[in-house]
Amino acid sequence: MNLLRCHGLSKRYGNKLALDNVDLTLETGSPIALVGPNGAGKTTLLSLMLGFIKPSDGDIKVLGKQPGSAALLGKVAALPQDAALDPDFSLLTQLALYARLHGFNGKAAENEALRVLALVGLVDAARSLPKALSHGMGKRAAIAQALIGAPKLVLLDEPTAGLDPVNARNIRDLVSNLAADITFLISSHNLEELEKLCGKVLYLDHGKLSQAVDLTTQDSQTYLTLQMQPCDMVALQTQLQGLPGIEAIQPSGKHTLILKYQPAFSEQLDIQLLQLLHQQQLQYRMLIKGRTLEDQLFS
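== ABC-type multidrug transport system ATPase subunit ==
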């Protein structure tokens, strides 16, 4: 099913062109990342998808419908970065209220509130006040609100911002577990988090769709990313170039190398590389198949 279809989509604010002739088609499925520098047009695109604003030129369809139309009520939800529940009313009270706004009545509204709390692992905190929750639990409670009514599309803005690694992992696991039934579009500056979670990445810059990277078909068969402990990187690069199958080596940052190799040497290259590092008594921090998202977008 078409999640999003844009054709010649542009948005102007006075003389400023915030979104510039974007053509894009996305299908429902695995989480999708939306990245780009501040002012790139990400918020404008999300606002157009939600029907908060109208395009200046072109057209946009969400789940085959006009954004903001009655046909999308309950099917599209959004969670802004700093969204928070009222600190003085329990989670159950507030979520049941939002469920009633979605058309649930009486006991059904409370059951829906408990259902979404179960999805985010907060049933035991149902009668707690938001101000009594940890930051990570507060994020999950806010996501629960966005899940009321079983939407087909959920827009998340910086869902792991300010979280420690454990709580960030909890949010990633939550999104992954729900992705079979809900398509998530996630706007974030945290490329490392997005790489672990998303199947596709859209890169906006100066209002234009600069790149669309499909992480499910990325170049893991022809690249290795090697991150080292501090060492003589120039000497190491020279030694690595002697390994069979190596076509090119590109530095990426102070202690990282991107190795491009011939696919036929894939199975033996890992072993030979590790043997070389052992012989030279060199320690590495990370060795992964493919390139990092940062390298794919900016190299």
